[in-house]
TrEMBL record:
One of its GO terms (biological process) is DNA integration. The lineage of its organism: Bacteria, Bacillati, Actinomycetota, Actinomycetes, Streptosporangiales. Keywords: DNA recombination. GO terms for molecular function: DNA binding. The keyword ATP-binding does not apply. InterPro entries: DNA_brk_join_enz, Integrase-like_cat_sf, Integrase_catalytic. PROSITE patterns: TYR_RECOMBINASE. This is Tyr recombinase domain-containing protein. Residues 1-120 form the Tyr recombinase domain. The keyword Membrane does not apply.
Length: 130
């Protein structure tokens, strides 16, 4: 797992412990990493709405970005970085490479630099804490 994700999950866990304490008796333990403020499973409509808000705040059209779009982007980025198609297919749960090749993989090298510059503007670097 990328270190960025490990860090984010650790921070999320701390926030979830606080949410669990705040919810008290109304907390339902379902052993979920991502859940509501009372421990219940997330509803897909709420996830898509919340993602839309995040994208809108980042200056993107939140109605155009869904979890499916994020999945396509991940596969494209991994493919463009040179990761073997077989590994990508396994990572995203495909039985073979056909679906990964035909549906998900989009070569993005021509726009990656433009996108990287935009990402740097949207999410400026912050100094790392020692």
């Amino acid at each position: 797992m990328p270190l960025r994700c490990v860090d984010a999950l650790r921070e999320h866990h701390v926030r979830q412990v606080v949410a669990r304490e705040k919810a008290g008796e109304s907390w339902q333990e379902n052993d979920l990493v991502f859940c509501t403020h009372t421990g219940r499973p997330l509803d897909v409509n709420n996830v898509e709405r919340d993602l839309g808000v995040i994208f809108d705040k980042a200056g993107l059209n939140g109605r155009e970005w869904t979890p499916r779009e994020l999945r396509h982007t991940l596969v494209s980025l991994l493919s463009d970085s040179g990761m073997p198609l077989e590994n990508i297919a396994r990572l995203v749960g495909h039985n073979g490479t056909a679906v990964t090749e035909l549906v998900y993989r989009h070569q993005i090298r021509p726009v990656i630099e433009e996108g990287a510059k935009a990402m740097d503007l949207i999410f400026p670097r912050t100094p790392k804490k020692a």
